[in-house]
Amino acid sequence: MASPPAGSMSLPPLPQATLGYRVLVPPNDNQSNDLSHLKDPGDANGANGANQPGNGNKNNQDGRTPSTGWNLDSSESQGRGGGGGSGGGQGGPVVVIERERCRRNATFIRLAQLERQARRHLLGPELHPEEEDNDNFEDEDEHGREEQEAMEEEDANPATNPGIIHYVVNNGVPVPETPVLSKAANRFFHTVCWVADDTVAKDKPYRLSSNVDELMHVVISGRVTLTFGVQEAQTVASIAPRVPGSYDTMKYLALNCHENDVLESTLVFQGLLNAMEFAANVQICMNDTQETKKSTIFIRLQSESQGKLDKQWLNRYYSLGLKASMLAGAGSVYFLVLIAVARLRTTLSGLSGSAVCELAKALRYPDVSPIGTKIKNSIIPAVSWCRDKYPIAGDLVFSDSYTIPGGRRGAQLDVVNISETDQFFDSLGYNAPVKPRDSTSWVSFTEPISADRVWSLSVLRALRDGAKEMGLEPQELLSQLGQIQLQGRLLQLPTLPSLPIRNWDKMINFNNTVVIDTQFDPNDKKNTILSYDSRKLEARIKATSDHRRWATSAKKPKTCKECEKMISKQLETGSKKKSSVYTLLDAQLYEGKVVKINDKLGNMVAILFADMPAELSDKALDAIRSMFPSLIQTVNCSSEAEGFYSLHFSYYNRYAKKGTGTPSNAEPSTIRRLGKNNVATKVNIPRESKESEEWYEYKEMLQDALKPLFEWISEKAC
User: Are residues 168 and 218 in the same domain?
Assistant: First the structure.
């Protein structure tokens, strides 16, 4: 497709259609009506998954294997056929696969899909929830499906359908794949990683107001399950203080805000669980009634609710339920806890189905890419920590009526058993292949947990009975387990970790701060005027080259005292005596300390944090690489011909470029410049640079990727 002319507005590129595949291995005589020959190595359920609700695969009547393939909006490789029947035939001897000719043109995308994509890019998913009618989970183009089946019958003979020959590697055994995530999926993933890192961080208490400990205490107290009816939100105090500005009033309001955060996470978690159950029931209904279109079911539900429900809402709930189920099957039920703590329900609803599939594959079988590394170093340790600290049974989060196609019940699910949860959630129809799990990467999640440590519905009933006898709420009793004498059935309660105690009066310790006072004068002419002509590219290149060369040969002090003396000496006249003289400020000399360099007025010129926790510094580059995989590259800075991409996110204060010489109390809209017609207020107040505004998505992605690091720096610098 041709690029739009310069200066024209264009939407972000839409996903292109992918070509389907056809397995060209004819079955034996006894396989004509059986899909067992499509099983993966060691997969007892591979064939059965091909006919799951929503998968859209049908047995051909000519005795050949059914055609397999992805929906048009997917860019995934063909893999295991756990949900869509698209990976069978990879086991056993080498299977030759021929790329099937696209029936409608290689770049065909349905008009309805184009319209949804355009609305999403322009207005966002919340204003247009119909975007959730996602092609990746349920293809409802009946005309296209019938046309494809008819043309497959015509071209059943491989001789009439020449194409590129494909082959299978590793004998069909799964191999890790490098995930390709959209910007939205990347931000979703890194937000969850941030919660995961915060969950297992050593420097407790949490940076998050609503955290895993808080939410799991709510789950164990029974406020998530609907077995006991709708649970009322607890209040901090019955009577609010009435003295404006008093610490009692502010404490009361702050604690209510905190409780609202926890309640919001609880509602997000409940919303995900309810959507998962709704999606499973829709698929059971489709199975039982032989209904091929879920929209028919939604229209009937809309009618029976007397207008209280809308089919577009129902479609969003169904889509969200499948997305949450796929992620629960990939990262365990505890992965949903991380999503709930991050309050990402709306974000998850806005992700495309293909993005969720890509993320699920990466979670199950992480590779050595930056995203795979983050999964191994952040996600898996966090969900394993949650499982070990808060082992729960399925009946504590799933209702007794939660049943999936095949008859298995969520209330009977062993949540701490990853193999069992895999089989459970893989039974749903996703119209996408399900990636097998890499047992090596997930070994920490398979440590045995004794049954007496697991919190279940029967344990919760004993807790509620005991709390009632004591005149307490279940959550109140939980908070006092280590302080009161238990009797009867309460003696058998599993151990519950106490909530981390927050020290609201905690002060930052500056005892490790080293201050280097200098005579640097910010108003000195040498510090305010460039030594080269910034309008000439050659001059800028030469200045950059010179300073890089001088910095390479910087003086290297051997002790802290020598370093401080050299820096002070270098700036004793108010500016650098020689532009070519550099001094190396080595972080290893000041390990575990903060170094501040001040000017003659006592204001900070530079600051060095040599005490950053390893969990922040070690993961910083991995976070950037996973967020910007195509922008991070290794270059040789000494080579003049070597170029690289760079983005500057600058922020100007009021007097950085404009407003110089005007009174500090002048209203910004009154400031003018001689010879200039631009009088917009924003040029005279603190503002972002033009580059920062144009690349705001990248800036936000960078802020998401390094959020823990930036928060740590802000806390240290304030």
Answer: no
Question: What residues does 403 pair with on adjacent strands?
Answer: 409
Evaluate whether residue 80 is within a structural domain. yes
User: Does residue 622 contact residue 374 with C-beta atoms inside 8 Å?
Assistant: yes
Per-residue model confidence as pLDDT tens digits over 520-529: 998 888 888 8
Q: Could you give the 3-state DSSP secondary structure of residue 383?
A: helix
**Residue 264 sits in the same domain as residue 409:** yes
Number of domains in the chain: 3
Provide mean pLDDT across the span 615-640: 76
List, as one string, the DSSP characters of 582-599: -B---TTTTTT-EEEEE-
Beta carbons of 310 and 302 less than 8 angstroms apart = yes
d(CA 708, CA 710): 6
Of 198-202, 274-278, 308-312, 470-474, the range with the lowest mean pLDDT is 470-474
pLDDT tier, 23 (very low <50, low <70, confident <90, very high otherwise): very low
Domain annotation covers residue 664: no
For 536, phi then psi, to 5°, come to -105, 125
Q: Cα 241 vs. chain centroid, distance in angstroms?
A: 40
Q: Is 197 in the same domain as 116?
A: no
pLDDT: which is higher, 48 or 244:
244
Shared domain check, 107 and 55: yes
| Contact of 400 with 380, CB cutoff 8 Å | no
pLDDT interval class at 219 (50, 70, 90): confident
Percent residues over pLDDT 70 in the chain: 64
Indicate if 244 and 323 belong to the same structural domain.
yes
Element (H, E) at 619: helix 614-627
304 within some domain? yes
Shortest CA distance to 524 belongs to which of 558, 489, 574?
574
Confidence of residue 218 (pLDDT cuts 50, 70, 90): confident
CA–CA separation, 302 and 715 (whole Å): 51
Q: Which pairing describes strands 651-652 and 687-688: parallel, antiparallel, or unpaired?
A: antiparallel
What is the signed CA dihedral for 213, 214, 217, 222, rounded to 10 degrees?
-140
What are the backbone dihedrals phi and psi of residue 255, each rounded to the nearest 5 degrees, phi first?
-65, -35
Would you place residue 639 in the very low, low, confident or very high pLDDT band (cuts 50, 70, 90)? low
Give kind and range of the element (H or E) at residue 688. Answer: strand 687-688
Q: Which helix (H) or strand (E) holds 608?
A: strand 604-609
Cβ contact 460:222 at 8 Å: yes
pLDDT band for 133, please (50, 70, 90 cuts). very low
- What one-character DSSP code corresponds to residue 68? B
Residues 193 and 167 grouped into a single domain = no
Query: Which of 74-83, 104-113, 382-391, 502-511 is predicted with the least confidence, judged by mean pLDDT?
Result: 74-83
End position of a domain, from candidates 114, 146, 172 = 172
Nearest to 467 by CA among 493, 441, 444: 493
| Full domain range(s) for residue 121 | 21-172
pLDDT of residue 658 exceeding 80: no
Q: Which of 117, 137, 172 is the last residue of a domain?
A: 172
Average pLDDT over residues 429-456: 89
Tell me, rounded to whole angstroms, the distance of Cα 550 from its chain centroid. 42
Q: In 3D, which of 691, 587, 703 has the Cα closest to residue 646?
A: 691
- Separation CA 497–CA 151 (nearest Å): 62
